[in-house]
Amino acid sequence: MNPPQDSTDTVFEPDDPRVDGDIQDPAEHFRDLINEDQPQLAVAFLSQMYPADQGLCLADLGRSQKNEALSLLSPEHTAHILDHLSPTEAAQLSYGVDAGTLSAILDASSPDVAADVLRYLSRQQSEQVQATMSRLEPVLPLLQYPASSAGSLMTTECPQVNINASAASALDIVRLRGDAAERIGAVLLVDAHHHLEGSVSIVRLALARPDTIVSQIADAAVHSVAPLTDQEECARLMERYSLHYIPVAEPDGRLLGVILVEDLVDVAVEEATEDMYNMAGIPGERVTGPLGASILHRLPWLYINLGTAFVAALVISAFESTITRVVALAVFLPVVAGQGGIGGTQTLTLVVRSMALGELPGRRGMRLLAREVILGLVHGLLLGLAVALVAGLWKSNPFLGLVLGLAMLANMLVAGLAGAGVPLLLRRLRLDPAVASAVIVTTFTDVCGFAVFLGLATAMLTALT
Amino acid sequence: MNPPQDSTDTVFEPDDPRVDGDIQDPAEHFRDLINEDQPQLAVAFLSQMYPADQGLCLADLGRSQKNEALSLLSPEHTAHILDHLSPTEAAQLSYGVDAGTLSAILDASSPDVAADVLRYLSRQQSEQVQATMSRLEPVLPLLQYPASSAGSLMTTECPQVNINASAASALDIVRLRGDAAERIGAVLLVDAHHHLEGSVSIVRLALARPDTIVSQIADAAVHSVAPLTDQEECARLMERYSLHYIPVAEPDGRLLGVILVEDLVDVAVEEATEDMYNMAGIPGERVTGPLGASILHRLPWLYINLGTAFVAALVISAFESTITRVVALAVFLPVVAGQGGIGGTQTLTLVVRSMALGELPGRRGMRLLAREVILGLVHGLLLGLAVALVAGLWKSNPFLGLVLGLAMLANMLVAGLAGAGVPLLLRRLRLDPAVASAVIVTTFTDVCGFAVFLGLATAMLTALT
Asked: What ipTM is given for this predicted complex?
């Protein structure tokens, strides 16, 4: 029997006793072997794994260890590993690799993988690597497409067949393309000017009479994207219409390449992760990344939040004389802020995620806003009643309960309004609705919540004391 | 030319002028036609769309309209639509459909789609529908697999070929299976007892000499999953190793079916959404769902948070006499709580998401905890310095600045510790690390933050006043 789908000769099964039993963490074991100056053993150990796992082991190493390990592998071997990684993983593996080593590896890679890696390097590093590459020509046109565009995701190695060819000659082209054709499962049909005309599955080709003209058994390729189409849109099309691949063509119809569904699984997962991280204020972070990068990622967000927290503090400060007279008000400040923040986050998360999933076309915005305001009203009434009772009984002051309950009602209304309104507005302004929305929403709920709570308390001061 | 990949004859392109120009929202236009009592026009309009879009239009209707529309479509037509939806979308479409209509539709569906729909119905509804189904036999064994298991995701309609068959006879089976074989792009090889022995791509079959024995050109099927394997694990395997499909086999090796990569794009997206919604306290919600369901989803979480907010209020209440003497302390309570909450959320989001992506094997837990505590220390020092300066200058009280700065330091440490520790602990206890972690983490940061801030203030009361 041959080796399994895309893997090397001997493989590491996930439940292989070598992984779960003797060797706890293959990446650590590999690093230990490198550190113990046993490079031959390390490479032999590495080669037992699937290419994707080899990539993770290598990406995990420090700079000098990584360069040492890569010097023991052939550029072709490393290029084969890169083929099996997502663009971000490939970039992580390439991080810190000497320019000379990297250019030899990229020369041995497919052009789209090389372009992915170069796209993630700094401008200076990228130019250094390109200067020593010998197979740069097919890579350059791909570099013009920005990261996360269809052009950056596509593979250019797709089997193209003239629309007037016979099934037999189409199969000859499949035979030549081998691997790439097997992955797509189809050939793309073009006219004499390389304009996309349709596609035909290899199964259908194989079952057709050899002299059949391919146009007679073809599918019209209605779903295709432009090279600058955003990857999120590509993922949505593929998911929506259960496509296995999607051709990328110039607006004039000239075929450029094809995006495979497996490359978009990565995209769907990365987009979701990006949204979550943006909302939490940790854009682009990784658990395995260096500590300094984490600090740089998180600090700006923490300082921005600190700034807005001081705005809320200003509001409270304006009512210091009221608090002096009814100090119990201070006890409930975090209750007001906390509930508003949580209500706002609930709405915000729902809206941001639904936008990402394409469930919220622009015209539904107003209906959504109304829906969330109604929800805020209902939640505000129910929560307001609860806090009014608890606080009123606890501090034996029904007026305190009333003020807190009303503040809660107002705050939940603001939470619904801002939680839905802010991402809708950001999208209207063509900004990413995930990026800064959480801090804006909580600022709204904090400021409005404190203003209503302490404002009402000041107005009812004689009843409260 | 034939119609495009899996679609009906005339199609709606995303940039079709009918969609963006005259008819703003196809779903609304369709509903209007139904409401205007023009069922024939409505069905004609619907049939122009891709099956997946037809499904969304139908799912959007109210109960009686939906039943009316479905009565105009043949059960085969609706079954074809269901085939193109994700399991949750199929469940949404089936919601509220009369038992008799639904059983006719499921009789015309593939067994795994029928099982998906039945799995989402209430026990009573499911039994009602099953009672009138005539093709229940192939569905029943699938119903035993819980939702989100490999067994519930697989399609049983996969082409199986005996390992000793010739390439020619394998192609005959492909010819018979048609659509299913085309989707998988491969046939699965089994021995006489239907035990999985490997697979061979259809491209390779087509290119082989007709009398070649398939075992000679086969891939050993190293990656297979058990029917009870969780869908998250399946998605991880497919993404990691860029698989197009993954066979599902009993532990003894008997082949049950195959999961296709396109079904796992849905899974990857749904898992990410689920994590985000669980963390925000809106499990299982949809923007398009009924208002009452949203209230039921969000209220428990809001009340739980209210409970923990009162715990934090208790801490503040214990220091009321201190606040009476230094009322400026009240001004900074939300600053302490807010920053701790945000720091905790940053760590928590990173950890929960990394766990979901399989980037955090159990043995890395302690290293991660140490990393986040160090980050908390660094952030605490930098933020603490900033708040100490601002608050000290603002209130012209350096001791107030000192107390606030120290509280910030302590709070960011707690944020790192709880943000990483809570999800790690939840996972160790085999609970979902996303579900209740946010409320636990913010309770920790609130309580510790207030205790340190007000405790220090009380200790330094003479210096503060």
From this structure: 0.72
